[in-house]
Amino acid sequence: MKLHKIREEVKKELSNDRYEHTIRVYETAIELATLYDESVEKVSLAALLHDYAKCQTDRELKDNIEKHDLPRQLLHYNKELWHGPVAAMIAKKTFRITDVDTINAIYYHTTGREQMSNVELIVFVSDYIEPGRQFPGVEEVRQLAKVDLKKAARKVLQNTIIFLLKKDATIYPDTFLAYNELTNNLK
Ligand code: DGI
Ligand code: FE
Ligand code: FE
Ligand code: FE
Question: Where are the chain's structural domains?
């Protein structure tokens, strides 16, 4: 499917605000791909589809996880984590995307994971720094993203873990694993 067609499908599936966020992630991801000499095609597809399942109900997401053999473990963690793996499944099955890097960037865009590729790091960081975001600390991540993708991703993970701890939420293991790996990387 051509990119403009995928864009139309995404627009149909999402709320206006979510679609506009998606387009800002897409634009940010293309800037970073250009800066780091990564595949614009991969990050474009992954960014356009990363939140494709975001407007599904909890019921639909849960059914999709069960029906499509996604990790049951997800169901024991925050519901906000469910949409990434479900979107990755739809990207494969409906949009016929076969590139593993693109699929992983969609799958892990919320949690992160160990050994993220540059394409994954770009989508992960772009989701956090797109110009519509106003998290505390986002400006620091925007500056880091211009010089070091891994340091930027580490800061996103650190901010997110602190945010989750402060509200007594659980933290998905992949998030800790990604944070630990990127922190060891600095030494
Ligand atoms: O879908 P978006 O709003 O664009 O952003 P996202 O998919 O990165 O994240 C959705 C939310 O999930 C984010 O505010 C933090 C929250 N969250 C809940 N549990 C976890 C988590 N994020 C991480 N990294 N790990 C968790 O265990
Ligand atoms: Fe998301
Ligand atoms: Fe994110
Ligand atoms: Fe997003």
Answer: 3-185
- Cα–ligand 4 centroid distance for 149 (angstroms): 18
| CATH homologous superfamily for the domain 3-185 | Hypothetical protein af1432 (1.10.3210.10)
What's the CA gap between 178 and 97, in Å, rounded?
Answer: 25
Proximal ligand: closest to the CA of 87:
2
- ipTM for the assembly: 0.94
Kindly give, in sequence order, each residue whose CB lies less than 8 Å from that of residue 39, ignoring residues fewer than 6 positions away: 33, 101, 119
User: How confident is the model over 84-123, as pLDDT tens digits?
Assistant: 999 999 999 999 999 999 999 999 999 999 999 999 999 9
* 111 within ligand 1 shell (Cβ under 6 A): yes
Please give the C-alpha separations between residue 159 and each of 37, 41, 120, 122, 184, in angstroms, as whole numbers: 27, 29, 18, 17, 17
